[in-house]
Amino acid sequence: MKTEQVGESILETWTADEVEEAFANDEIVLIDVRTPQEFMFEHIEGALLMPLAFFKAEKLPGQSDKRIVFHCGSGARSDKVAREALAAGFGRIAHMEGGFGAWKGSKKPYIGTNMATGAPQVVS
Protein backbone atom coordinates (compact mmCIF):
# COMPACT_ATOMS: atom_id res chain seq x y z
CA MET A 1 0.00 0.00 0.00
CA LYS A 2 1.21 3.45 -0.88
CA THR A 3 0.27 6.43 1.25
CA GLU A 4 0.22 10.13 0.44
CA GLN A 5 -0.21 12.98 2.90
CA VAL A 6 -2.96 15.30 1.66
CA GLY A 7 -3.17 18.20 4.08
CA GLU A 8 -3.99 16.64 7.44
CA SER A 9 -5.37 13.49 5.81
CA ILE A 10 -3.96 10.29 4.30
CA LEU A 11 -4.75 8.95 0.82
CA GLU A 12 -3.99 5.24 0.51
CA THR A 13 -3.49 3.48 -2.79
CA TRP A 14 -4.08 -0.26 -2.49
CA THR A 15 -3.11 -2.99 -4.93
CA ALA A 16 -5.70 -5.40 -6.33
CA ASP A 17 -4.20 -8.13 -4.12
CA GLU A 18 -4.59 -6.00 -0.98
CA VAL A 19 -8.18 -5.17 -1.90
CA GLU A 20 -9.02 -8.80 -2.61
CA GLU A 21 -7.66 -9.96 0.75
CA ALA A 22 -9.34 -7.22 2.80
CA PHE A 23 -12.64 -7.66 0.91
CA ALA A 24 -12.59 -11.43 1.46
CA ASN A 25 -12.01 -10.81 5.19
CA ASP A 26 -14.92 -8.31 5.34
CA GLU A 27 -12.57 -5.52 6.43
CA ILE A 28 -13.58 -3.02 3.74
CA VAL A 29 -16.53 -1.66 1.81
CA LEU A 30 -15.61 -1.59 -1.88
CA ILE A 31 -17.30 1.23 -3.78
CA ASP A 32 -17.31 1.23 -7.60
CA VAL A 33 -17.46 4.78 -9.03
CA ARG A 34 -17.88 3.76 -12.68
CA THR A 35 -21.10 4.35 -14.61
CA PRO A 36 -24.15 2.12 -14.09
CA GLN A 37 -23.60 0.75 -17.61
CA GLU A 38 -20.00 -0.25 -16.84
CA PHE A 39 -21.11 -1.83 -13.57
CA MET A 40 -23.92 -3.83 -15.21
CA PHE A 41 -21.56 -5.20 -17.87
CA GLU A 42 -18.95 -6.38 -15.36
CA HIS A 43 -18.20 -5.73 -11.70
CA ILE A 44 -16.61 -7.15 -8.57
CA GLU A 45 -19.22 -9.21 -6.77
CA GLY A 46 -20.31 -7.47 -3.57
CA ALA A 47 -19.01 -4.02 -4.55
CA LEU A 48 -21.41 -1.12 -4.10
CA LEU A 49 -22.09 1.36 -6.88
CA MET A 50 -21.77 5.13 -6.38
CA PRO A 51 -21.10 6.64 -9.83
CA LEU A 52 -18.74 9.59 -10.07
CA ALA A 53 -21.49 11.67 -11.72
CA PHE A 54 -23.62 11.34 -8.57
CA PHE A 55 -20.85 11.23 -5.97
CA LYS A 56 -21.49 13.17 -2.75
CA ALA A 57 -18.69 12.66 -0.23
CA GLU A 58 -20.81 13.99 2.61
CA LYS A 59 -23.28 11.11 2.10
CA LEU A 60 -20.65 8.42 2.71
CA PRO A 61 -20.94 6.38 5.90
CA GLY A 62 -18.25 6.60 8.56
CA GLN A 63 -15.49 4.03 8.69
CA SER A 64 -15.91 2.82 12.26
CA ASP A 65 -16.63 -0.80 11.28
CA LYS A 66 -15.12 -1.11 7.79
CA ARG A 67 -12.74 0.98 5.72
CA ILE A 68 -13.89 2.47 2.42
CA VAL A 69 -11.94 1.64 -0.73
CA PHE A 70 -13.00 3.16 -4.07
CA HIS A 71 -12.35 1.68 -7.49
CA CYS A 72 -13.11 2.55 -11.11
CA GLY A 73 -11.87 1.31 -14.48
CA SER A 74 -8.27 2.51 -14.33
CA GLY A 75 -7.78 4.30 -11.02
CA ALA A 76 -8.28 7.89 -12.24
CA ARG A 77 -11.92 8.37 -11.15
CA SER A 78 -11.39 6.55 -7.85
CA ASP A 79 -8.41 8.81 -7.08
CA LYS A 80 -10.64 11.82 -7.77
CA VAL A 81 -13.46 10.71 -5.46
CA ALA A 82 -11.00 9.66 -2.76
CA ARG A 83 -9.55 13.17 -2.81
CA GLU A 84 -13.08 14.62 -2.66
CA ALA A 85 -13.76 12.47 0.41
CA LEU A 86 -10.58 13.78 2.04
CA ALA A 87 -11.64 17.35 1.23
CA ALA A 88 -15.03 16.61 2.86
CA GLY A 89 -13.30 15.75 6.13
CA PHE A 90 -12.35 12.07 6.00
CA GLY A 91 -9.02 11.57 7.75
CA ARG A 92 -8.00 8.51 5.76
CA ILE A 93 -9.48 7.01 2.58
CA ALA A 94 -8.30 4.53 -0.03
CA HIS A 95 -8.64 3.63 -3.68
CA MET A 96 -7.47 0.69 -5.79
CA GLU A 97 -4.47 1.27 -8.03
CA GLY A 98 -5.19 0.39 -11.66
CA GLY A 99 -8.90 -0.04 -11.00
CA PHE A 100 -11.01 -2.84 -12.43
CA GLY A 101 -8.42 -3.29 -15.20
CA ALA A 102 -5.83 -4.27 -12.59
CA TRP A 103 -8.36 -6.60 -10.92
CA LYS A 104 -9.06 -8.39 -14.21
CA GLY A 105 -5.38 -8.34 -15.17
CA SER A 106 -4.60 -10.17 -11.92
CA LYS A 107 -7.14 -12.88 -12.91
CA LYS A 108 -9.39 -12.18 -9.94
CA PRO A 109 -13.03 -13.32 -10.11
CA TYR A 110 -15.78 -10.92 -11.11
CA ILE A 111 -19.32 -10.88 -12.46
CA GLY A 112 -19.37 -10.48 -16.23
CA THR A 113 -22.01 -10.67 -18.93
CA ASN A 114 -22.48 -13.82 -20.99
CA MET A 115 -22.47 -12.37 -24.49
CA ALA A 116 -24.59 -15.23 -25.87
CA THR A 117 -27.42 -14.89 -23.36
CA GLY A 118 -26.94 -11.47 -21.76
CA ALA A 119 -27.06 -13.11 -18.35
CA PRO A 120 -24.57 -12.34 -15.56
CA GLN A 121 -21.96 -15.00 -14.88
CA VAL A 122 -18.92 -15.48 -12.65
CA VAL A 123 -15.68 -14.99 -14.56
CA SER A 124 -12.52 -16.30 -12.94
Write a structural description.
This protein is α/β, with parallel strands linked by helices and about 120 residues long. The chain has one domain (about 1-124): Rhodanese-like domain (Oxidized Rhodanese, domain 1, 3-Layer(aba) Sandwich). It has helices spanning about 15-25, 35-40, 75-85, 100-105; strands at about 1-5, 10-15, 30, 50, 65-70, 90-95, 110-115, 120-124. The two termini are about 25 Å apart. Keywords: Nucleotidyltransferase, Transferase.
Major sheet summary line: 6 strands, mixed
The strands making up the biggest β-sheet line up spatially as 1-2-6-5-3-4
Radius of gyration: 14 Å
C-alpha end-to-end distance: 24 Å
Strand content: 25-35%
Give the count of structural domains: 1
The number of helical runs is 4
CATH fold name: Oxidized Rhodanese, domain 1
Mean pLDDT: 95
The helix content is 25-40%
> What is the C-level CATH assignment?
Alpha Beta
Structural class: alpha/beta
Q: So what's the overall shape?
A: globular
Oligomeric organization of the protein chains:
single chain
The CATH architecture is: 3-Layer(aba) Sandwich
The arrangement of helices and strands along the chain is EEHEHEEHEHEE
- CATH homologous superfamily classification: Rhodanese-like domain
